[in-house]
Amino acid sequence: MEIPEKFLSSSGQRIPRLGFGTATFPFVPPLQATKQAILQATELGYRHFDTASFYGTEQALGEAIVEAVSLGLIKSRDELFITSKLWCTDGHGHLVLPALRRSLQNLNLEYLDLYLIHWPVSIKPGCLEFPIKKENLLPMDFGSVWAAMEDCQRLGLTKSIGVCNFSVKKLAHILDLAQIPPAVNQVELNPLWNQKKLREFCNANGVLLEGYSPLGAPGTPWGSNRVMENDVLKEIAQAKGKTLAQICLRWAYENGDIILVKSFNVERMKQNLDIFNWSLSEDELRKINDIPQIRGCDVGPHFVSNNGPFKTVEEFWDGEI
Is 253 helix (H, G, I), strand (E, B) or coil? Predict the structure, then answer.
């Protein structure tokens, strides 16, 4: 099936509106299971795949791409939109380009479609533990890191660049110093954390908003079941004969966002694709938009320390909590 697309302003690329995420918990999932899920998703019609150096899934995605071509599921890698991310230990100007080259080697690719700064904070190089040791947190030098990201795009190693988990204030700072503006800001996005203020800022500045955890990341230490247990969403899903997940995805789609879904279950993969040929009524949209807001996937506390760059969660998110 054809998934609708949007243009990325800084490169003129087209990005599929629905992407397939590969982050799992625990981190570093079994390679074979991840590879098989990516192949199944490709066969169903997914063409946008999201990974990160920290997820431990770059190799599985790379192997799945090779196999998808050999099986005839796609003609070439060029049919796909591949995103990876710069982890905080490489969030230093001189380490950005080597980190991207490492990701490309893991993926067995010549270029990415999109390369993102994973979090707006740095960690001492080489300190890969999670949870993060607070003494290893460092302020990110946005000027040198973003300049290195721009070099990555100029060298053709990635077609577009962007950020993840950036508040309005931090995104504005990047826009002020950028020669190549970020194409995307990838953030938590669901009906219980609708990012209204951030979406308005992104729309006004030509940055696409891309949402992860559209169901609130149930089953992870940082997520919750609040989205899946919301009565308003349950009622709308029942009335429309759709799953609650489909209601959440359609809501984000109607807001104009890019959406990342993650399920290794084939039936749910199919359901997640079935959001384009129906719509929510104005009354249903109003009910969803009236749901009280609460940030659900808050990894922010991991980046907070009395001696670090951010002393409180409020400071980390610049009050956007």
Answer: helix
Q: Are the C-beta atoms of 255 and 210 separated by less than 8 Å?
A: no
Which CA distances in Å does 216 have to 111, 212, 318?
Answer: 31, 9, 21
Q: Is the dihedral of CA 32, 37, 41, 44 positive or negative?
A: positive
The answer to whether the Cα torsion of 254, 255, 258, 261 is positive or negative is negative
The answer to whether 257 and 209 are in contact (CB under 8 A) is: yes
The verdict on whether omega for the bond into residue 131 sits within 30 degrees of 0, i.e. cis, is yes
Greatest Cα pair distance in the chain: 54
55 is catalytic: yes
Q: Of the listed 55, 115, 212, 253, which one is catalytic?
A: 55
Residue segments in the chain with a per-residue pLDDT below the cut of 70: 26-28, 221
DSSP letter for 101, please.
H
Question: Which of these, 200, 227, 221, lies nearest to 131 by C-alpha position?
Answer: 221
Question: CB-side exposure of 11: number of CA atoms within 13 Å?
Answer: 22
- Cα–Cα distance between 311 and 63 in angstroms, integer? 41
In angstroms, rounded to a whole number, what is the distance separating the alpha carbons of residues 18 and 282?
23
Q: Per the confidence metrics, is the pTM higher than 0.85?
A: yes
Question: How far apart are the C-alpha atoms of 83 and 286, rounded to whole Å?
Answer: 33
State the sign of the Cα–Cα–Cα–Cα dihedral 22, 25, 27, 30.
negative
Predicted pLDDT of residue 27: 66
CA distances from 192 to 106, 173, 274 (A): 35, 27, 22
pLDDT at 130: 81
CB 256 within 8 A of CB 5: no
Asked whether 184 and 32 are in contact (CB, 8 A), the reply is no
